[in-house]
Amino acid sequence: MPPSAKPSERLSRLFLEELCWRIEPLAAQLSYSIPSTRRFLSEVGYYRSFTHNGGWYTLRSIPRFDKEGFWFHEDIGFSRLGSLTNALVDLTTRSAGGMSAEQLGAKLRCRCHSILVQLCRQGRLQRHKIGSSHVYLAIDPHTALIQRESAESLAIIQLPAEIAVLILVEFIRKPGSSFEQLAQAITRRNGILIKAAQIEKLFDQHGLKKTIQTAAPGP
């Protein structure tokens, strides 16, 4: 890299070598102070990770965000909205039936319970208890009412582990089954009344929703 190159040019070239950097080694590579390096990042445009306490940086031109506005490089997560708090509020507000801390943590690949509690205290989210579980809802009363009614219609937010295992075993036996067929089979075999919507939510949580929807219908 030519020593006469502008700091912004040198910065861009470093991000061609590594997609994400922590600020200290990045400043060392540039031979500038950390405040100066942050200024160069601002000139080029950057995102800070919502994981790892915001310790990783990437240029605005690098992420290829998914439809929900997230991009992961290995275990480092970035949100189109920037911070973890913004991402949590957005995900929760857009959800059909609210989201539990476990669901949000799985989606964002990080623990977020304490931050969710803070968001409730700040009036950015609200929490509702259903059975032994808590679901986080939008702060808007109308949206929250729709979410709460949707969540309550499922009776439970997260299926007990033993029931989830029964469902997954049944799916392995007949991978072409629809959600309705799986619910009927579980009820018939085990005498457990379960709704297709509950199974759909379980598969969505584990990233299996697309698989079961695109599978060929069973006999």
How would you characterize the overall build of this protein?
By secondary structure, this protein is α+β, with helices and mostly antiparallel strands. The chain has three domains: 7-64, Arc Repressor Mutant, subunit A; 84-153, Orthogonal Bundle (Arc Repressor Mutant, subunit A), CATH 1.10.10.10; 161-214. Helix content is 51%, strand content 13%. The chain contains eleven helices and seven strands. It has helices at 7-17, 23-30, 34-44, 84-94, 101-108, 113-121, 141-153, 161-173, 179-190, 196-205, 209-214, and strands at 21-22, 46-48, 56-59, 70-73, 76-79, 125-130, 133-138. The strands form three sheets. Strands 1-3-2 form a three-stranded antiparallel beta sheet. The chain has a two-stranded antiparallel sheet with strand order 4-5. α1 packs across α3. It starts with 6 loop residues before the first helix and ends in a 5-residue tail after the last helix.
